[in-house]
Specification:
alpha/beta, abc type-2 transporter like fold, four-stranded mixed sheet, 381 residues
Length: 381
Amino acid sequence: MNRARLWRLYGVIVKEFRQMRRDMISLSVLLLVPALLLALYGYALTFDVKHIRVVVLNHDKGAFSRQFTEGLFQSEYFDFAGTIDREAEATRWLDRGDALAVLVFPPDFGKALRDGRTATAQVLIDGSNANTASIALAYFTAKAREFSAAQLQEFTLARGITQPAVPVVIEPRVWYNAELKSSQLLVPGLIGYLLMLAGTVATSLSVVREKERGTIEQVVVSPLGSGEFILGKTIPYLAVSLLTSGLVVAAGMVLFEMPLRGSIAWLFVTTFVFLLGALGLGLWVSTLVDTQQLALQISLIITLLPALLLSGMVFPIASMPRALQWASAIVPPRHFLVIMRSILLKGTGPQAWLAELGYLIAFAVFILGIAVVRTRHRSEA
């Protein structure tokens, strides 16, 4: 690139930064809103189910049933909602939504345990929210196993047996997210989702704003090339978006204890490539429409739903129908999510996500090329 082109490119970059400085509201939105949305979504979106309201129907009224309920309500996952005397009352509690579950102890619960037999307790649960109900049932099952293990140990020791008769013991060890926090699952995806959304919307509105104001005509009659125009538009927003990404990652680490086990340099490089694609997508949208309202609508449609539904952030891609799995392969946040989880949670290097980085590079080159070609055709028309 010769000196004349560099000066023209420099002029576009300076002009764009001045325009951003004049529009402090848009700049503040681009800088701060992703971090604020990360905090909102990070706290609101969670797969953890806590404070499950439980009503107890105890026909046994013995020591074992009391021990079970006391241990149950010492956990933050269960809240004691009350006691009832008849099963007919359980229907009213569940119908009104005053309780999510009813725990029923049969009359022989304690006797079965004292005799060394299996004691069965029943859980009546509101299944109108299937996801919450399945998680709550898993919690009840885990508590029952914990209580059973304690009772088995007491039972065997009382009979002088030093080795409990447990044929198989599974010792789980969870890597990368030992406490199984849902925030560790969601935050890396939210970072890509918000950066994709903010970058695409910002650049699409930037170019269309010039069309609405008529200043785009000055660009057409100037010696500025379409490539120089696209590059000059991209660089300022790329710089601001990189600053935004730093704020978002820092917010995730501070608010949700998100670790950073991998390389900061690789985090920067991969985010840089991902943002190039997001900004290029916004520039491509700006070549299709002439109003900011339409540009905003198209940007939201092509980023919001695919990044949320097809990236694997919320719904496992392997569980989707085959057609949607193929469709998700062209969604950049899906590949960026793999990289983010690898760098932040696993601390792995590029050997683990080289294919994903290759796709992001190809997408950025392709979409920026399309934006340049579209801009050249519109200026020649």
